[in-house]
Each structure stands twice: as C-alpha cells, then as structure tokens.
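In pairs, describe these two lines:
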Amino acid sequence: MHGPVTAGWLLVALCAAAGGYCLLRMRSSVDEQRSSAGGEALMGFGMAAMAVPAAVLAPPSWMWLAYAVVFSGAALHTLVSARGNSHRPHRLRHHLHHLLGTLVMVYMAVAMAAASGETAGTAGAPGATGAHSGMTGTMAGMSVAGGIPLLTGALLIYYAGYVLGTGARLLPGPATAGSTGGGGAALAWGDRPELGLACRLSMGLATLAMLLTL
C-alpha cells in the first residue's frame, strides 16, 4: 500500500502501544492475561519496527534475516506452549493463533530480505519517497519481491475473519444482573480482558495491512 508517511507512523504508534500494554499485562495477577503477554509484546514491537517509514529507515537484508531468526525462535517457543495446553481448548486456540502470527512475521521478514537488494537502487532516487512511502513504511519494499500469492491470499482471508470476529467480541452485550454493582473490586489495567482483546485486534489489523503489501 502506498499511502502518506503519516499513515505509516500511525501504524507504528498503534503497534507500539499494543506492545507496551502487553508488557503491562506481564505483571498481571490473572494467569490468563499473563501467560502469553510476553510473546504478544514481542509481536507488537516487532510490527512497530517493521512499519517505520522507508524515508526514515531502510534496514539492510541481514537485519530482516535477524528478524526471521528471532521470530522463528518465538514460533518454536509458542509451539511448545501450545503442546503443553492441548487439554485446554481456549488456551490452545490462542497459542495456535499466536504461532501463526510469529510464522507470518518470519514470512514477511524473508520477503523484505529478498526485496531489500532490489529496492536499494531506487531508494536514493529523487522522488522515490514521499507519495510512494507506504502505509507500512519499509514494508512497501515487499511489493517488489512479493510473496506466494496463494499463501498470502489465505492469510488475508484468515486475518480478515479474525479481525471481524474479535471486533464482534468487543461489542457491548446486554447487561446482566449484578454486573454493574459497586461491591466488586476494580480490575487493574493489566488485568482487563477487554483491553487485551483490543490489543490483539490492533495487531490483527496491523498484520492485515502489512500482508496487503505483498
């Protein structure tokens, strides 16, 4: 996508904010919130770094390969966690979604590593940035190397469905008796499940935007 640089910075801010909140969740007293917060923080900050506009930073190919190695390790860790939660369907589904997210990061990093050499010659040309600095910043180079069309299409369909489903879960439902009473203790910021869900929605939207550059 080739939108204004401002849109790329908005994507950076969104992903960084999601990653920052996930760091806060790592200190939560609720095990459900704390269990995967570290991996989600890594995803948030990793996507924020990927979305920095190319006019500001155009990393060399070795840096993208380093991204691929880091997120391959994260994918392996998530796979082990998923096997350990095979008896808990809700946790298992979440771990499998996170596993897919880390593999998508590897996929995009490899595509960027392949594209960096081809875009190096045009990066310094007059007018190469500006209108053609995309919404996803350095991710705009992925349009040169491209990805595997069938795989990219399948991932786009999955993340579009995930975003719609997660957004629907955030819609307010009918109030139940006792749900708004003043007797219960207020949840800490890191313990609020709806904020964790909003972070996952934000990262799903960011992944969807980045995949559109392939």
The CA atoms of residues 82 and 95 lie 5 Å apart.
